[in-house]
Amino acid sequence: MTTTAPDRAAPPAKDLPPGSSPWQLARRELRRRPAVRVSLAVVLLFVVTALAAPWLGALGGWSPDAFDKAAVDPYLGGQPLGSFGGISPEHWLGVEPVTGRDLFARVVHGARVSLMIAFAATAIVVLAGTAAGIVAGYFGGRTDAVLSRLMDLTMSFPSLIFMIAMLSVAKDVNRIALMTAVIGLFGWPGVARVVRGQTLSLKHREYVDAARVGGSGPWRILTRDILPGVAGPVIAYTTLLIPGMISTEAALSYLGVGVRPPTPSWGQMIAESVAFYETDPMYFVIPSTFLFLAVLAFTLLGDALRDILDPRGGRT
């Protein structure tokens, strides 16, 4: 006699009181996980920092572009005066070598740029991918074939090389808008594949057939019946997309094809700090730490949401 292992994707029955919605379950599970609570707090802190960057910079007393020549030593190649990269009551995180620009002001404004690009690119990816995936999965046939081949073509394209080439050629354009569009252009097929698979499993459910028999049109079925069914996996996937977008923006800025000076960016600051990592390691450590914490917090939060809202997808 053989026994089957319990389905790990299904939560214990005692955790599912009658009438519990997926969002109630998600909130309860998130409250039960200390690491997730910390990650959520860090994510909210970064979001607030990005939104309040101008006020936080003013609170520190410096703008991100203001030079403070009194904070660096001209006789030592512009090295910051004082310990730990010039950290002082005037400069809370130290100063940039040579220029003396305040690192706190540049880091908080860099958070604004990095998160704005990441959130905007993620929004483009999720909207385009969800629309394409629902249409391909619901209508099937030639529509599915065309969209699926377009997904395959986009995913097989050398996206990083294309991003570098396009951003290198483009000169007098809004760099933030261009980076957002280029990053979003290559990210939607992953979401589309997830949504297409979910739609294929939902379109033959009883409630969808009942809506179809009742005279509901495709638009109403897609928006009222299919879309709520794919919302959980899409939200979980979205949270996991954001750290990748932050890293992509930082990598492009590090390579010199992203945000241009004097606009601050974490990747740009890390690239500029490479020349000083032996003489002023804090200039490298500070933006790297902020980038690491942002990516880690979003990743942990996304993993938790995926396990809660899409448990089977998280284990396949």
Rg (CA only): 24 Å
| Overall spatial form | elongated
Low-confidence stretches: 1-16
Strand order of the largest sheet: 1-2
Oligomer: single chain
Encode the helix/strand succession as letters: HHHEEHHHHHHHHH
- Structural class by sheet pairing and helices: mainly alpha
Number of strands: 2
Please outline the major beta sheet.
Answer: 2 strands, antiparallel
Helix percent reads: 55-70%
Tally of separate helices:
12
Approximate strand percentage: under 5%
Distance from first to last alpha carbon: 28 Å
User: Roughly what is the average pLDDT, rounded to an integer?
Assistant: 83
Describe this structure in words.
With 316 residues, this protein is mostly helical. 66% of the residues lie in helices and 1% in strands. It has twelve helices and two strands. A two-stranded antiparallel sheet has the order 1-2. β1 (72-73) and β2 form a beta hairpin. α9 (206-213) packs across α10. The model is unreliable at 1-16 (pLDDT under 50).
Notable features of this structure?
316 residues; mainly alpha; two-stranded antiparallel sheet; 1% strand; elongated; disordered N terminus
